[in-house]
User: Fold these one by one.
Assistant:
Number 1:
Amino acid sequence: MTLGALEAGGTKMVCALGDETGKIFEQTSIPTTKPEETLSACMDYFKDKNIEALGIACFGPVDLNRQSSTYGYITTTPKPGWANVDVVGAAKKALGVPVGFDTDVNGSLLGEVTYGDAKGLTDAVYFTIGTGVGAGIISGGNLVHGMMHPEAGHMLLTPREDDAYKGHCPFHRNCFEGFAAGPAVEERWGAKGVELADRDEVWDLEAYYIAQAMVNCIMILSPQRIILGGGIMHQEQLFPLIRKKTTEMLKGYIKAAELEDMDSYIVPASLNDDQGIMGCLKLALDELSR
Amino acid sequence: MTLGALEAGGTKMVCALGDETGKIFEQTSIPTTKPEETLSACMDYFKDKNIEALGIACFGPVDLNRQSSTYGYITTTPKPGWANVDVVGAAKKALGVPVGFDTDVNGSLLGEVTYGDAKGLTDAVYFTIGTGVGAGIISGGNLVHGMMHPEAGHMLLTPREDDAYKGHCPFHRNCFEGFAAGPAVEERWGAKGVELADRDEVWDLEAYYIAQAMVNCIMILSPQRIILGGGIMHQEQLFPLIRKKTTEMLKGYIKAAELEDMDSYIVPASLNDDQGIMGCLKLALDELSR
């Protein structure tokens, strides 16, 4: 079986061929420029490859409501030219195969729970903490959409008493993304995260905000595991700090076996940065069996 | 069809008979004392009533994991005598019928999405804001359990600058319950909520905290509607304040048709305080068809 996978990002499109086991046969990368140009180049890649279905994990916001007239569209993105772009429609028209569609972060989460260390979990969260903060969520075995889709990077957080930084998000300054995404780290400390790797106070504060988000996720979703990816999480010294602070902030309120082993509860992505594209293969597979 | 419904609360047990349409034939209330005594009295009520199944919505924390050896138990409650009580086991043994089981708040939510104004919604949240704060959540048509069940009353909130009150929750003082439950209102203002009904500043502050919780719920779960019940929400002047502050705090970030009509988005419970017992009827019905 050959399935197509398209991880549609704001800076590049990763196009790949693979199968239902998550095996990737080949992949290529196409820069994200204008919608027609970019999507045409992607479709040219998939044409004549005999794919049975295509899975797309897309930057957003996107419309995931199958009853909506704009299902499969990128909706209100500030990215120039990309608002109201019919991604699924373009793919169906060009390829004539079933097209699965979800958010980029739901794609990554789906990769992890289908092919990664989180395989088989029914309730899990995948955060990417990088230029922005996004979250893919699965609950009871279903990717969470709701009225739109989660935007958990914008949950509100409490500033630490000694942190005078006002936050980077133009919408709500005191949100997870506003306090903890890459641009916030850079603006607060005056240097990029990679240049601050040996500054303990940077990662102690970063872990403080990420741990708050972990606590709110645990209280609201009760996930079996939380996976953290994205550029900021390449600072691996964050993991033990986040686990410790999350435990401290939970204050022993939630009694669950999972929380007694935090090393297995808050974990890095497990698929060598292929979780997104592998999630697309699963989106394609699921669309085939609808 | 006759179904049994048991809304198991910390102060009383409501036992009722009804049917699959949500119609309640009769009901009674039994005080919650010692587990054996209370559960025996409940089972005596249901005996000889020819119920086809029983649904129980129970105070907690409870074990909802069907694979667990303590499925159907109340687990770590501080309520004296009620930790590690096998509620489902007692009911099955006494009645010999299928027994559905979930949290009290999931029961209320299930009542609302099955028989109430939220009928047919697949993604919704029910908060009860009273002596404590609890939340029932449905996502993709499934009641959210995860590793345990949501405890969204304990999400962390940010104190308002002019509020010096340190919070009432003995676990995490700056959580939703700690800032906004009945005992917090009473401790902060020196009088019970009902006695403060005409004090605008009380409800302005209360709405500030509830709105923060709404924002976090919206960001993480993307619900189609949020239902607010419980003693505090009898102060109906809260609804317009909460809606306004929620909109303000969202800062226009989420574009969704639902949020353009906040009067239909953040709403009171619709079933005249019968949402819990009606949810139990649905739990019984669902257990029958498992």
Note: The two ends of chain A are 17 Å apart (CA to CA).
Number 2:
Amino acid sequence: MRRGVIFGHRDFERILEAMERGQPYAVMTGLMPSGPMHLGHKMVIDELIWFQKRGAEIFLCVADIEAQIMRGLPPQETDRIAVEEYLSNYIALGLDLEKCHLYFQSRSKVVKDFALKLGTHVNFSELRAIYGFSGESKASHIFYPLIDVSDILHVQLQEFGGPRPTVVPVGVDQDPHLRLARDLATRVGLVPPSSLYHRLMKGLLGEKMSSSRPETAILFRDSEDEVRRKLWNAFTGGQPTEKEQRELGGDPSKCVVFEILAYHLLEDDNELASVAEACKEGRILCGECKRSTTQKLLDFLAPVKRGREKALSKARELVTAAF
Amino acid sequence: MRRGVIFGHRDFERILEAMERGQPYAVMTGLMPSGPMHLGHKMVIDELIWFQKRGAEIFLCVADIEAQIMRGLPPQETDRIAVEEYLSNYIALGLDLEKCHLYFQSRSKVVKDFALKLGTHVNFSELRAIYGFSGESKASHIFYPLIDVSDILHVQLQEFGGPRPTVVPVGVDQDPHLRLARDLATRVGLVPPSSLYHRLMKGLLGEKMSSSRPETAILFRDSEDEVRRKLWNAFTGGQPTEKEQRELGGDPSKCVVFEILAYHLLEDDNELASVAEACKEGRILCGECKRSTTQKLLDFLAPVKRGREKALSKARELVTAAF
């Protein structure tokens, strides 16, 4: 929040109030097990860890129905990806998964049944206005948002603790779901969920980061060489020539390397500011900066990678318990 | 079939062929637990008993999601209605429920998951063309037909015996579902289900029979007095006066009392034909006919009622086992 990575919210006051007064509230988020975990996925986990340190009750949904319906992946594959790419990395990053309410959409009778109930409170016109559905839209794609909203709202059902403030940390592209969830919450007598919006990371080559295009993102499973190569090829805010860079300086605000430093690697604001200054004043070249950032990134990733190997069996255990 | 009560089909040859060759086939049908069971519901059960005598494998679905989503009934109520109104009467009518694959939609993970998968193979335009959906249609009502189709097709999944001919005995009003099920079957590599269509019984007062308007139907839970009163008030094919009836004769084809005899009470075709003749020739008056039909109906209902009381605990047991 301090750096504007989390830059927006809806109704977060409700959560702050609950935190200050020691009243119950829930944190709800999910992962879609359709591809490898990358740095962009880490931001929500950082938020979860922050909330967990403050004693928050956390619900973590594996959106395997989404991966199956929208991406056509078979259940065995979504199960594997959930454990090997996400949950084991979450543990390695420091999230205490045992303290989270972990569940898989496809195994949750409550979520599916509540989705069908919620779906009697919203008509096709409203869904079309939010999602742009047309006659070509598949029936399950039209219905899927209700499962998503059910994920968010079911934590307020009596058996999960009853109506209470809930915050959903998400990328800003997820806002339509949140608006639908807020509308439906009021229609069924629940508290409209709050949300926190973080910026979406730029792709390494300057476009959108996507786990289906591995060259656009640093993956947690990348080898050292892959990390080196990807950062070396990354789009920066630098000038075309060394001469111009020395004279005109670079632009950290356009630079994906600087973004990685700001979002993930430099905790100290002064240190971050001095990197930005050095760049803007042309005192540092992109190659130099990439080399030092690569080293920081590898230093960060190495223990996570080792931790993930150790966390794998724990993650499998928790998943089996969740089924 | 002999009397034209079952008057149409799609692809029933496929089932006849399987029966003749001793090859596997399935019978699939369902009940919606939203109101009391009436005589109109008995026709499918007669068909199931016929198939069961021939060794057919029968799948029986309690469409409780439909009752909950379309009629807004709570789950406890749909559970109660399923047992007390339907399953216990099925046993009393002679269906061996223990030999059926009995399940509740809401408890079937397979049916819900397969519905979501099937829903990726049909778009909104197709559903609109079949069901007349508009922008006002609720999301769950748009999605519900996929659950219905999943009920019909899931019996062909590997875990339930694999692809094979399946016949669905239904009222003719259910044909749209069957057409959708047949289209979707071919899209997912299953055998298009066959169907048998029976006529819908007329309502006692001449309009549509409906379990939500108890005066239109003979209910299995009606007292003797209610049965007497309902039949006495029933719409017939008789003339306004005794004189006209004696001279012109009545019209059994318009008569709900004659329909009850034909569909449920007179096994012997000659006996049925002589009632029709007597009516047409004015040799019998409506009052007379109603009295004798009432007696036949009470004689039929009494043992079913006693059997139902005995069958209640068995039905509860089977339902508990099915959960």
Note: The interface with chain A takes residues 65, 68-69, 72, 106-107, 109, 112-113, 116-125, 127-128, 133-143, 145-146 of chain B (CB under 8 Å).
